[in-house]
Design brief:
alpha/beta; about 35% helix; six-stranded mixed sheet; single chain; about 325 residues
């Protein structure tokens, strides 16, 4: 995903906005910093928003490096107490890139070298990211502009941030913001609606799986209606406690005939839902309370059989390499 993203930034003519939960000071981050500085030097308007907690996964932080380089960058919602950042909720987990107000990129991939396999990272991480065109790009830009205004007070309106965008492609799509504000429960409502509407199959890929009782029972009821439920989780989480915490709920789902698969390393950070081979949900949300209630997330729901088929092929490949979990 990174080479096309960098190519888009290097080809920007008017504006670049970039939002990421984690933005590490490493070999991947260095290339993005270089591309953003070069864009700024060409006269392109550049704005970068990094979550305060996510920015501190590496030192020196990319926020401080960008400020030193003269990039207009901001850190989202610093915790009130020094030293509490590791335990803070209300994080901005969105990952959005918009170039010239007309080309977008979204998904769940942070900016860190673990995602860039060509660099042969010590801890490789698989994920999914999507290029988008058409009117839905304005939805991405609106989400960034809202978060940027909240963080900095600057309003990004009109050109060069927003451009007239005509229809493009065959996929019906809309962006969905979710967070502990007026957008709370948006994604959970969409997920519950999709599960209630499913008639044949539901495919779920998520790195973290701790759904609440409502979502868990919705999965179970769909399975009891003979909807095939496939859930793909990593064999081993990158968060030690998650390896333990997700286990107690699995017997309940297995008893209701949901199928659970554990994918081998490298750790799979992908977030994906496909329903009935026509509807798909892509973006940053995990199936846990932190994503569904406590963090700011961004997803795109899509209606298109061709896209859903491509995504189901990805799920099939993951299942083929995975270990199916049984009650025994």
């Amino acid at each position: 995903a990174y080479p096309p993203m960098l190519e888009a930034i290097r080809g920007a003519k008017e504006s670049v906005v970039l939002m990421s939960y984690i933005f590490d000071s490493d070999r991947a981050g260095d290339q993005f910093l270089e591309a953003l500085v070069a864009a700024r030097d060409r006269g392109v308007e550049v704005r970068v928003l990094i979550d305060h907690v996510g920015s501190r996964y590496s030192r020196p932080t990319m926020v401080s490096r960008m400020r030193k380089a003269g990039i207009q960058v901001a850190a989202f919602l610093p915790p009130g107490r020094v030293g509490m950042f590791r335990f803070a909720n209300l994080r901005n987990h969105r990952t959005i890139l918009v170039v010239d107000g007309s080309r977008g990129c979204a998904g769940g991939t942070n900016i860190r070298e673990g995602h860039w396999f060509e660099l042969k990272p010590a801890f490789p991480v698989r994920c999914l990211r999507f290029r988008v065109r058409g009117p839905v790009v304005a939805h991405l830009m609106e989400a960034f502009a809202t978060d940027w205004a909240f963080t900095t007070g600057e309003r990004l309106e009109g050109a060069p941030w927003f451009q007239p965008i005509g229809r493009c492609g065959d996929v019906g799509a809309r962006g969905i913001s979710d967070g502990p504000d007026e957008d709370i429960d948006n994604i959970q409502q969409v997920i519950l609606g999709a599960l209630a509407s499913a008639t044949d199959r539901v495919r779920i890929v998520t790195p973290y799986f701790l759904p609440d009782d409502v979502v868990r029972w919705s999965l179970a009821v769909a399975a009891m209606r003979n909807v095939k439920i496939d859930i793909v989780l990593p064999e081993r989480s990158n968060i030690f406690l998650m390896n333990w915490a997700c286990v107690p709920q699995m017997p309940f789902l297995l008893e209701k005939k949901c199928r659970i698969f554990r994918s081998p390393e490298p750790f799979d950070h992908s977030k994906l839902v496909v329903v009935d081979g026509v509807w798909s949900l892509i973006g940053s949300t995990n199936w846990d309370a932190r994503s569904l209630r406590l963090n700011f997330e961004y997803n795109i729901e899509c209606y298109d059989e061709k896209l859903a088929g491509q995504l189901e092929k990805i799920v099939d490949d993951k299942i083929a390499a995975a270990r199916e979990l049984t009650l025994e």
